[in-house]
Design goal:
Length: 73
């Protein structure tokens, strides 16, 4: 029999997954506020943070579109 892998993330994986959120929490703001700040002034942030903000923007938009399709039927 093949063992199924656990879906839970551990230590390093969890930190890597939520690093954008952790950056926002360290600054005392929400992830959406950090996204807006990064996209407004990308010169103040490193390339990884810019990519994370862009990815968050894309994923939020996709989720919003998905919810609209579900409610429209």
């Amino acid at each position: 029999m093949i063992k199924e892998k656990s879906k839970k993330l551990t230590g390093k994986e969890q930190t890597k997954k939520s690093s954008f959120l952790l950056k926002a929490k360290r600054k005392g703001i929400t992830s959406s506020q950090l996204q807006a700040n990064v996209l407004a002034e990308p010169d103040k942030y490193d390339e990884k943070t810019i990519k994370q903000a862009t990815l968050r923007k894309t994923l939020v938009q996709l989720n919003k579109n998905k919810k609209e399709k579900v409610t429209d039927g």
